[in-house]
Amino acid sequence: MQIDSAAVGRQIPLSSQKWHSQDTVWMLGMFGTAIGAGVLFLPINAGLGGIVPLMIITALALPIAYYSHRALAHFAQASTAADKGLIAAVEEHFGITAKRVIASIYFATIFSILLMYSIAVTNTTLSFMEHQMGIEAPSRALVSIVLILVLLGIVSLGQEKTMRVMSALVYPFIGSLVVIALYLIPKWNLSVFTSFSAESFALDTSALMTLWLTFPVLVMSFNHFPIISPFVVVQKQTYGSECDRKCASIQLRSCLLMVGVVLFFVYSCILSLSPADLQAAKDQNISVLSYLANRYNTPTIAYLASFIAFVGINKSFLGHYVGAYEVMEDALAKVSGSHGWGLSKRTRNALILAFTISCCWIAAWLNINVLSIIESFAGPAGAIILLLLPMYAIHKVPALAPYRGRISNVFVTTVGMITVSAIFYSILR
């Protein structure tokens, strides 16, 4: 997101006691950054474990989203390099080695999500062709390469135009999620809430495993850490010494909004489908909306759900490519410079594009399970940056000493450890 130069240049801080129009802009900006295609896979994991894991997820969603991003805002606020991004703040506080480690994790997180969306957009398109259009789809290899080339063709138009396309897709996507959730209400089956028994509250091994693996998907569904640094920079310039209070106010409202919308969508999908349906969606490696489009053979759901899934996945792909490109371009420029290769920016762009196309196409062709990528890598790696990094900083950085000793720190650290530990499940499996 571009930093508002008018706000940066403002000399007289505004009062944090009042709500201003620019506060609404930032609230919706964080909302739009967080709500992406990852939300389309959350109902599958959240619903597979039964009522108790679902209730636990419902109770934890808001504190996870709010306290983790508040801690990251504190981390950015304590840095004089926050205007250069999160990685620059890491270098300022912990040095060049820590910067390289976090930059590597940051890139691996974003790039793995990029691969995930390449698979998801391919499966969404094939499912639509087969079930809604009733035609025999071309080979998976052909469909995937065409889709990836089209998406990266949009990116090749430039970052500004890519961001415009993303911005145009954000709010129709969010609005459509609410519409589809409302449309599903008549199809709800409320028996899950009326058939309580002692056994229904028992967390067996299967339910615990499902709950464990839902944490990475849950963290990813509300993640908006890329926008936190520019958000804090602008609030510093706008509100001066009252920056922290205003950041807390905007972040709380944004998290309430995103958690409310996402949980409404999650519950509406879960109540409209059986556990067997959710397992089938996971086995078929498609989003819950693609499965709904196939499950309910009505024009509204069939076409609207497929459209929402396609738009949401494409939006997220474009956004994550922008982040991945920045890291790759910076690393390639430094490596080529240190070795005297003298690669031009055009050459670097061509290498990055070729590498991205190859990796995305192979992942889509192999049809790696999307939820497995989130559970075993993307979610845990993202949790290192979003949950554990700011907690470590609060413990080590003197400027963050006022935030030590809070119960929320224990909560965020615990959630971070649980989420990161999902990596070990994939190794054991």
Descriptive notes:
This protein is mainly α. The protein has one domain (19-428): Amino acid/polyamine transporter I, CATH 1.20.1740.10. It contains 18 helices and no strands. The radius of gyration is 22 Å and the shape is globular. The longest helix has 40 residues, at 299-338. The model is unreliable at 1-12 (pLDDT under 50). The relative contact order is 0.19.
Order of helices and strands: HHHHHHHHHHHHHHHHHH
| CATH topology call | Amino acid/polyamine transporter I
Span between termini: 39 Å
Mean pLDDT: 84
CA gyration radius, whole angstroms:
22 Å
Poorly predicted sequence stretches spanning 5 or more consecutive residues: 1-12
Backbone shape: globular
The helix content, as a percent range, equals over 70%
Number of helices: 18
Defining key terms:
mainly alpha, 18 helices, 429 residues, disordered N terminus, Amino acid/polyamine transporter I
Tell me the layout of helices and strands:
Layout lengths: L4 H4 L12 H14 L7 H7 L2 H27 L8 H9 L1 H37 L7 H16 L3 H25 L7 H4 L10 H17 L6 H12 L3 H30 L2 H10 L3 H8 L3 H40 L6 H22 L3 H27 L10 H22 L1
In short:
This protein has 429 residues and is mainly alpha-helical.
